[in-house]
Design brief:
This protein has 302 residues and is an alpha/beta fold. It is built from 11 helices and 10 strands. The radius of gyration is 19 Å and the shape is globular.
């Protein structure tokens, strides 16, 4: 394999951190106006950090607003994913998205209603793809934080679709505790099911939010927890859940960063086979933290 020659004008981003951060600028707490978010994303796609940037995430109820904003963009230039409130809404949302010439579809994120029957979920999602004329794309289903979790994970594991875990929000109760998140990670890894995370991952390291006191997970803690799950899930599992929970709770910036840096490249890339990305309303903040922790080199670094 040919190694890439470092570009002094770009951030030097290791492969296991590429495309890690989805651009969720329009969602809380950022709540950026759509036109502002779109302009910033387009700028970011040409920027020195573009290899860190995932797709722009837009909710289905904003598609009519998005369409005229993209009219002057080149065809297939906007890497984009849409969030929808239910499997039944997916086909229409995909069709409306693809009607915009600028769209290059990255996929969709699908929420579930309380009455959704997990075993029927893959069939409904597949029907939506057929309705939209989409042969293949990434579909992530938000896994409920209740007693349906295992049934939804089982249904997704037997399908072509992936999982999405909610890791925070605008209220304290929207943040899963360490044990709950550890169980979700183990559930996905045991089933060889890729997942993305959304909300609350505002910092690289576990922290207490200074403004509202919420206990927030760190995306690097999550990265290491996935590594621990992948290393231990096929061997002796006694204590593995506790190990993941302790990793998620670790607030030592230097220790967490050093553990990530010490991962062999193939092992770090294996983590990304499980933990595909996370959504954040400010892409530059996680980039700046990773740079400060020495995990990404800024432009001009020797």
């Amino acid at each position: 394999m040919t190694e890439r020659t470092p570009d002094p004008h770009r951030y030097r981003i290791p492969p296991h951190l590429e495309r890690l951060c989805d651009d969720a600028a329009i969602f809380p707490p950022g709540n950026a106006p759509l036109d502002v978010a779109l302009a910033a994303h387009v700028d970011g796609s040409w920027s020195a950090y573009r290899r860190f940037l995932g797709p722009l995430i837009v909710s289905a109820d904003r598609l009519d607003e998005l369409a005229p904003l993209t009219a002057d963009l080149p065809p297939h230039s906007l890497w984009f994913a849409v969030t929808v409130p239910s499997p039944e809404a997916l086909g229409d949302a995909l069709s409306r998205s693809l009607a915009m010439p600028a769209i290059r579809l990255a996929g969709a994120e699908v929420a579930l209603a309380a009455d959704t029957t997990p075993r029927h979920l893959p069939r409904h999602l597949a029907a939506a793809l057929v309705e939209a004329g989409v042969s293949s794309t990434e579909i992530y289903v938000e896994v409920p934080r209740d007693d349906r979790r295992d049934d939804v994970l089982d249904a997704l594991a037997d399908s072509e679709f992936d999982a999405k875990f909610r890791t925070g929000g605008m209220r304290a109760d929207l943040y899963p505790g360490e044990e709950e998140l550890a169980d979700a990670i183990l559930g996905a890894v045991r089933r060889h099911l890729p997942f993305k995370a959304t909300a609350g991952l505002h910092h690289a390291i576990r922290n207490t939010d200074a403004e509202n006191g919420f206990e927030q997970h760190g995306f690097l803690n999550l990265f290491l927890a996935v590594d621990a799950a992948r290393q231990g899930v096929d061997s002796e599992e006694n204590g593995l859940r506790d190990q993941l929970a302790a990793t998620l709770a670790d607030r030592d910036r230097d220790v967490v960063a050093e553990r990530v840096a010490a991962l062999e490249p193939s092992r770090a890339m294996a983590v990304r086979a499980s933990f595909t990305s996370f959504g954040c309303c400010g892409v530059r903040e996680p980039l700046d933290e990773l740079t400060a922790l020495g995990l990404i080199d800024p432009p001009g670094a020797s």
